[in-house]
């Protein structure tokens, strides 16, 4: 399961398609948070960012869209939903996916990841939507809205637990500020979540200019296994990953290479090369922590040759 989830997310990074911010930034520019955020605003599909007080009830601002036992089509599920067992397959583990700042629940990477998890794993899926709250200015989202979202998401996870789904069977995936939302949920649940994957966890106001306490940011204490994939280091992303394992495609800096890959199917051939949980890497990925047995293999993924490292991770 670790390999499958990791493969889906790493291929999204290689494609460079789950985040529109990748190609907006120039890694050679000076670190100027204001200009970076302005560039990100201009690159957003959400239009002008918002500012001001939010008065809408949290139940309307944060929604959950989940697959069921009878259908992979996502339908809305509520906290304390009386029909919860008809809407979620409780016999399976579940993956909850959430977007980040300026994101939305219908973006390509979220829909594609949910689809591939349903297709290639035994997990159910829930997409966590907080589109409106994510559309405000960055400091407001990072400092005010993220805790609101994580608190309500924690309520949802606790509700699932009360209905018979333990947090040890849950995987959380979050991008940007959404990665820290997942971390906050894990912190609220005292690290009982099975695993969390942070896709380019946001750096500003989380790890720089000052490092916030662990209750506000994703780190290795938030789940049994935490992995970070860092692609905009020193700018919008964290400077260094703080998971059990951390990956830095192309050194982790922006802009990322834009590979045109069109299929997820061939990535599953990797499963034949791994046992239990393994480090997954290629010639452009670097792990800050963990040694691997360096038995190199070459895998053809559509038109791109990927050199894959085979071997069990050692802490």
UniProtKB/TrEMBL annotation:
GO terms for biological process: lipid catabolic process. It is found in: Secreted. PANTHER family: LIPASE (PTHR11610), LIPASE MEMBER H-A-LIKE PROTEIN (PTHR11610:SF178). InterPro entries: AB_hydrolase_fold, Lipase, TAG_lipase. Gene3D superfamilies: alpha/beta hydrolase. Its main location: secreted. Keywords: Secreted, Signal. Residues 59-256 form the Lipase domain. Transmembrane segments: none annotated. This is AAEL002150-PA. Belongs to the AB hydrolase superfamily. Lipase family. The keyword tRNA processing does not apply.
């Amino acid at each position: 399961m670790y390999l499958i989830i990791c493969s889906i997310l790493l291929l999204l990074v290689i494609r460079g398609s789950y985040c529109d911010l990748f190609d907006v930034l120039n890694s050679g520019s000076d670190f100027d948070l204001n200009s970076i955020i302005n560039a990100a605003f201009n690159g957003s599909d959400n239009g002008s960012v918002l500012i001001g007080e939010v008065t809408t009830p949290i139940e309307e601002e944060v929604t959950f869209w989940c697959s069921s036992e009878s259908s992979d089509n996502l339908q809305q599920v509520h906290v304390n939903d009386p029909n919860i067992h008809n809407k979620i397959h409780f016999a399976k583990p579940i993956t909850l996916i959430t977007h980040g700042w300026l994101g939305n629940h219908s973006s390509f990477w979220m829909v594609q990841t949910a689809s591939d998890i349903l297709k290639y794993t035994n997990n159910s899926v829930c997409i966590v939507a907080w589109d409106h709250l994510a559309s405000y200015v960055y400091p407001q989202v990072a400092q005010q809205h993220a805790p609101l979202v994580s608190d309500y998401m924690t309520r949802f996870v606790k509700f699932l637990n009360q209905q018979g789904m333990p947090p040890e069977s849950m995987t959380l995936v979050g991008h940007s500020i959404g990665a820290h939302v997942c971390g906050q949920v894990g912190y609220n649940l005292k690290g009982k979540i099975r695993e969390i994957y942070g896709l380019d966890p946001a750096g500003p106001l989380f790890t720089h200019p000052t490092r916030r306490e662990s209750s506000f940011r994703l780190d290795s204490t938030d789940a049994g296994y935490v992995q970070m994939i860092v692609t905009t280091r020193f700018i919008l992303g964290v400077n260094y990953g703080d998971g059990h394992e951390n990956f830095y495609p192309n050194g982790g800096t922006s802009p990322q290479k834009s590979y045109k890959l069109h299929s997820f199917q061939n990535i599953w051939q990797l499963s034949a090369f791994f046992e239990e949980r393994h480090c997954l890497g290629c010639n452009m990925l670097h792990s800050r922590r963990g040694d691997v047995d360096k038995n190199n293999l070459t895998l053809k993924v559509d038109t791109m040759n990927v050199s894959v490292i085979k071997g069990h991770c050692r802490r």
